[in-house]
Design a protein that fits this description.
The chain has 2 domains: 4-37, no CATH class; 40-89, CBS-domain, CATH 3.10.580.10. 30% of the residues lie in helices and 14% in strands. The chain is built from 3 helices and 3 strands; from the N terminus they run αβαββα. The protein has helices at residues 18-27, 52-62, 83-89; strands at 46-47, 66-70, 77-82.
């Protein structure tokens, strides 16, 4: 497993050049990238049966950028709802 540190240049997490990232990826095609440092352990989520107003309130209250929508029958992620999705739906 590749460490996420390979993709950061310095202490400020400055992005690497796309060519550098391409070289790292092509050299390690058979390995996975450890993304756990970037993941939220317990993200806010809604079920497919929840009302849209609940989603809007979660976005507003917690200042979310994305919200997973979960199927309660098997726990799989159906879609990731974003602010852009809500803005496209709502007339502001």
């Amino acid at each position: 497993m590749l460490s996420w540190r390979l993709f950061n240049q310095d202490i400020y997490s400055t992005d690497r050049d796309i060519d550098e990232v391409g070289d790292i990826v092509s050299f390690n095609e058979d390995r996975l990238i450890d993304l756990r440092p970037y993941m939220i352990e317990s993200p806010y989520a809604v079920n497919v049966t929840d009302k849209l107003i609940k989603c809007i309130e979660l976005f507003r209250y917690f200042h979310l950028r994305a919200l997973p929508v979960i199927d309660p029958t098997d726990g799989s992620c159906v879609v990731v709802l974003t602010r852009g999705d809500l803005f496209a739906y709502m007339s502001l």
